[in-house]
Design a protein that fits this description.
two-stranded antiparallel ribbon, 8% strand, globular
């Protein structure tokens, strides 16, 4: 059964503890759409409905036009006026928060934390008889509170820990807890949830493995450079000069113990989840199978494409699922991000920075300075590249009826063609910003996102909705956490064992590095495997490599197809290296977005309004002016 997230209407003052009675007879009749607060905890279905409502803070998962990828060196958001540049160009401030605040912001998270607190406060005294249901709902409430606090912690650093239900007219001024206290609170909630949650549940509801996965994530973050204050101070003058570093991380203590705790939590997650999808291989699969494996993981068994392996659903620990009967915009991933030559909107387009990081099939680095790479840059690459990125000449779905393209290939270049009179013309590809299909919303980078777009050829992305779930947690993230902690603990052999299992599933050869080189290889692998999964933004910050990654210039690609001597082609165009000499020119682009990293952006600011409401709330470094 797929979980439907419903908004259940309670009395308007439910969160304040109920309503006073009224002497007017007609007001004593309870409207059918409202339920007195005290009645919610008398019946199992009502209590379950309340907790189901707390899941609504998860919203659409990462599926939106403005995915976090476009704040990283994975993607750029094609369109203007969406308040993304506020962050990417370094103008983030307490009065100018950018689009992230609308999705992952302070008010939203605390409203759902409050709802979780209500459930946690009332569940022990609930009078319905189903003890198993009561335990499970309590576990879900613990998990959801931990999840929302985790969202706050990884964006803001330490925040006020609120575990009571405030009533009206109370003093809401609360100081920030320390970073250590926040981590301990989240871990405690995860542990409580894991004790109460079952091993399996309906899709979209938390399980024991879900709680363990969240614990694994928060502990790997806690052990990272950004939150080890001696390390962070050495890397950032802004953090070094901050008077309250206890809000940002650990001032002292045994960092190796933190890595050890992260390693144990990750291994517990792997064990509880059953080991994931094809993570027991001892040699690489074929390139074709590697690509298919990566697409299958992204689809998580939800695609109707018969070429995919639906057993890849075993990779998912916790996801946001969608039901065909509900009109949910997030399911229009293909429309939001697909090529404009298919009447789609080209939202989060991959940038050359990501594309160039995909290795060659033999595990060597790709380089534009290598003549053999430059002449055919999209051949013989890491199989995951073909599952993640659409590039010039890539095969894709059938075009709409108004497009002349029997080959159904991505066209992001300009090509020589002969018109109907035999005259030479320069034809702009159907998926460019000069397209004859739509000329306003094509990719600026020369690439398109493929990951999470259902490849089922029977689906027309512009109008048909897809039901691909969003992975909040999958087994591979926990494996990466285990690898990272093992590297930092000096356990290279264990790290290599698991790192190469991920590579073998993708059809890539084994890594044979150690020490610092192994750490670099691990970070590269995590970048490629988890692309577009809202990992990179947080990873680059916690590793404190944001200046050279999140702040790096955007690399685009220009593609030109010129006839070879004695060769020609008439409409319709198709990719053909026997007819064309193709040239691929990477360029640095600043006109659309001039990225700049400022160290204050390691943490988000508290809004001016929030600071004014709560005099005890100390602002993050770099935002006082």
């Amino acid at each position: 059964m797929k979980l439907k997230y419903k908004n259940i209407l309670f009395l308007s003052l439910l969160v304040a503890g109920g309503l006073s009675s009224c002497d007017t007879d007609f007001l004593d009749v309870t409207p059918p759409t409202e339920i007195p607060a005290e009645d919610v905890w008398k019946e199992g279905p009502l209590a379950e409905g309340f907790v189901t409502g707390v899941y609504a803070g998860l919203q659409q998962g990462g599926f939106s036009e403005q995915m976090l990828a476009s704040l990283t060196d994975e993607a750029v958001f094609t369109h203007t006026g969406r308040n993304i540049n506020t962050i990417n160009e370094g103008s983030l401030s307490p009065s100018n928060l950018g689009w992230v605040d609308a999705t992952y912001g302070w008010s939203q998270m605390y409203s759902y934390i409050r709802a979780a607190n209500i459930a946690i406060a009332n569940m022990p005294g609930a009078t319905f008889a189903d003890v198993a249901l009561k335990d499970r709902l309590m576990g879900e409430a613990y998990f959801l509170r931990a999840y929302y606090y985790q969202q706050l912690l990884r964006y803001y650093g330490a925040v006020p820990l609120i575990k009571k239900v405030f009533l009206l007219n109370e003093d809401y001024s609360v100081p920030r807890n320390t970073f250590d206290e926040c981590v301990k609170s989240i871990v405690s909630d995860c542990d409580s949830a894991a004790l109460l949650l079952p091993a399996t549940m309906a899709k979209g509801r938390a399980t024991k493995a879900t709680a363990l996965a969240l614990k694994s994530r928060i502990l790997i973050y806690a052990a990272s450079d950004l939150h080890d204050i001696p390390t962070a101070k050495a890397k950032s003058a802004m953090i070094s000069g901050y008077s309250n570093p206890e809000f940002l991380g650990y001032l002292s203590g045994d960092r190796m113990a933190r890595w050890k705790a992260a390693q144990a939590a990750a291994k517990a997650t792997i064990d509880a989840s059953g080991g994931g999808y094809k993570l027991n291989l001892t040699a690489p699969v074929s390139a074709a199978e590697g690509t298919n494996n990566h697409i299958s993981v992204a689809m998580s068994g939800a695609s109707g494409d018969k070429r995919l392996d639906n057993s890849a659903v075993s990779e998912m620990i916790f996801g946001r699922y969608f039901t065909p009967s509900m009109n949910e915009g997030a399911r229009q991933t293909g429309l939001n991000n697909g090529p404009n030559g298919y009447h789609n909107w080209a939202g989060n387009t991959p940038i050359g920075n990501l594309v160039d990081d995909y290795e060659m099939m033999d595990g060597t680095k790709f380089s534009w300075t290598n003549p053999s790479h430059k002449v055919i840059p999209y051949q013989n690459r890491d199989p995951r590249f073909y599952a993640t990125v659409m590039y010039d000449g890539a095969d894709w779905k059938p075009r709409p009826s108004d497009a002349k393209d029997p080959a159904n290939q991505i066209q992001t270049g300009a090509y020589d063609l002969l018109d109907d009179k035999g005259a030479l013309i320069n034809r702009k590809g159907l998926d460019t910003r000069q397209s004859s299909i739509e000329d306003w919303n094509g990719s600026r980078t020369g690439y398109y996102m493929r990951k999470f777009i259902d490849p089922n050829p029977a689906l027309y992305d512009n109008t048909d909705r897809q039901n691909i779930p969003w992975p909040f947690f999958r087994v591979t993230e926990a494996v990466f956490n285990y690898i990272e902690a093992s590297i930092e603990l000096g356990e290279d052999a264990e790290a290599l064992l698991w790192l190469n299992r991920i590579r073998f599933r993708a059809g890539m050869p084994a890594v044979k590095a150690s020490g610092a080189a192994l750490r670099t290889a691990y970070r590269q692998e995590r970048r490629i495997e988890m692309a577009y999964e809202e990992q990179r933004y947080h990873d680059a910050r916690r590793w404190m490599i944001a200046a050279e990654t999140l702040g790096s210039p955007l690399m685009y690609i220009n593609v030109l197809g010129k006839f070879k001597p004695g060769k020609s082609m008439k409409e319709p165009y198709h990719f053909d290296p026997t007819v064309y000499d193709y040239t691929y020119t990477p360029v640095e682009e600043k006109s659309h977005e001039n990225r700049k990293w400022v160290d204050k952006m390691y943490f988000r600011p508290f809004s001016r309004d929030e600071i004014n409401r709560n005099a005890k709330l100390v602002q993050n470094p770099g935002y006082d002016k």
